[in-house]
Design brief:
Keywords: Plasmid. The chain is of the alpha+beta class. It is built from six helices and six strands; from the N terminus they run H-H-E-E-E-H-H-H-E-E-E-H.
Amino acid sequence: MFQQDLFASPASQPTTSMPDIVRTIAEHSARPRYTFMVLDLIARVARPNGQAGPLVRDGEALVPIREWLATAIAPSGARYHHRRMTADKVRAALEAKGELPDDRDEAERLVDAQVRERIRETGMTAISRAVSELVRAGLIKRHYQGCWVDHENRGAQRHAVYTVTDPVRAALHPNIATSENQQKPYVRGAHGQPRTAAAR
């Protein structure tokens, strides 16, 4: 099942061009540029059937798509002054709790790690908000893939899967195949993780 906004009025015509997409996002999002970046990244990693997630390969690891999106967009959102303010708050909190190492280099590494984690958490919240706006705009669909059954709501052992419609993908990336018939084999293992051929 897909999560949809039951109160949203149906679009009078399908979104098929870049101006349509930009206009639709502007009508539904408080941060249209950020939301467009989220849509573009989802479309780039989507399989030929338009689905992206529940996991995305990041180097040697497979991470939930929401976490991957937050990490991918974090550099653009982590402005220098904001990062510096966050670092000052983290350092002050560690000092207050007596957890700041005496060694300067070690202290900086600890502060930097906690700053990155805070930025990641903030980013994941922003991603969820942007995706909800895209769902309401009718540009993507969202459901949560579980170990045994899929569901429209998030729950234990469920990870988000985003589906970009063919017209939207074609407008964003005309050279990307969108035919579902070209979908590569995708087999779910435990917790919705894809398995390699050797593991099937």
